[in-house]
Amino acid sequence: MPAVTVEDTTTLPRVPLPAPGTVRRRTRSVTTAPSGFEGEGFPVRRAFAGVDLRDLDPFIHMDQMGEVEYAPGEPKGTAWHPHRGFETVTYIIDGTFEHADSHGGGGTISNGDTQWMTAGGGVLHIERPPEHLVVSGGLFHGLQLWVNLPKAQKWVEPRYQDLRAHESVLLASADAGALLRVIAGDVAGQTGPGSTYTPMAMVHATVAPGATLDLPWRPDFNALVYVLSGAGSVGIDGAPVRTGQLAVLGPGDTVTINGAVHQESRTPALDVVVLGGQPIREPIAMYGPFVMNTRQEVLDAFTDFQAGRLGSIPAQHVPHAAVRGEAGQG
């Protein structure tokens, strides 16, 4: 069960019913995310694996972290690692993560919080569970999304946004059968707290069994629906989806999501993340933690990292300074 919820969705502002002439998007593809391990060994699903970058643009990578119930001593994070040329969005659905960077920033995100990091020209970063969670174990579930930056903004100064759970805009579908948490973007006349360089929207929706969500969606945005848990269908064509699957939708101005009437006992509803953004349509050269426009810029990023020009680990964190630059590390 996601940390951010409400007892009665009928008390929330409603997403309006689709207007006459609305074009509901059709499903172009459904892919299943392969499972793997990230950082020091926490389990992930690679949500975008096998999907053409042109369909994802402006997004480039997403991991579903967990859902996992850790035993004492099991929780894991990442080592210090660099980033350049994009933004990372870490959304903690349940559990707690600490983060720190080479600019001296950092903090803790937990139970519905989002940490939005603009790497820009370059930063060193670390994410890990707090010591008390390592000792006790516990539930951990989250997402990390990578959002590309256009060429003109790849060299901006690094910045952080710590978006607290209570800042998310809560809405209900027209039939009150779906709870929406708007993290970023303008959705149904409401604006989420995330400030983005690239125009985009990010929504976490919980759709009750048998309920329908018709979500207004900017026609100049792409539309992706990733299933965190549960079963249902997406698009006007009703393409079936289940846990760990990504649906890429075609053009239109409404995203349609239906919760299956019958759900597994451990997943009482359909939980999805809906993503969309204005495509950047620029060349992409990426390797590991660097996302640039040319191969030479990626090589330059490695050179700058090795020369210490992406920052240095703050003194209080030096004991954890096993810096790596592996693909996917957040």
Automatic annotation (TrEMBL):
GO molecular function: metal ion binding
Region feature (Disordered): 17-37
Cofactor binding, note field: Binds 1 Fe cation per subunit.
Keywords: Iron, Metal-binding
Pfam (any one): Pirin
Residues the record lists as binding Fe cation: H81, H83, H125, E127
Membrane-spanning intervals of the chain: none
Record-annotated Pirin N-terminal domain positions: 42-147
Keyword Iron part of the UniProt annotation: yes
Domain of life of the native organism: Bacteria
Gene3D superfamilies linked: Jelly Rolls
Obligatory cofactor(s): Fe cation
Residue ranges of every copy of the Pirin C-terminal domain listed in the record: 202-310
Family affiliation: Belongs to the pirin family.
The protein's name: Pirin
